[in-house]
Amino acid sequence: QVQLVESGGGEVQAGGSLRLSCAASGRTFSSYVMGWFRQAPGKERQLVAAISWRLETPYYADSVKGRFTISRDNAKNTVFLQMNSLKPEDTAVYYCARQWDLYGSVRSVSLADFGSWGQGTQVTVSS
Binning pLDDT at 50, 70 and 90, where does residue 26 land? Predict the structure, then answer.
């Protein structure tokens, strides 16, 4: 059973930046697609970005393209989400998650493809 621990959330003014980290346990981290999701109050959980285990263009939701960057450090079992030019509508609890299957893909990726979840980290963007 993988454990995922997010960190790096906080409160920032609009236009600011935050970098989220997600540390994963387990020896096969490098073989999984990892994703970042967010959930605002009263809204459904949304896939924000996903990164493959192989050389494949990451997935980004349209609302964050050009502002957010997902990356990973397999040597440290960690996935990152760099968030720039933050907007009040980015306010949410952010979760990282691991895809169910080994050697998956970010093509046609969706929430249903992900199993293990972290506890989440709050991001608040004030105007």
Answer: confident
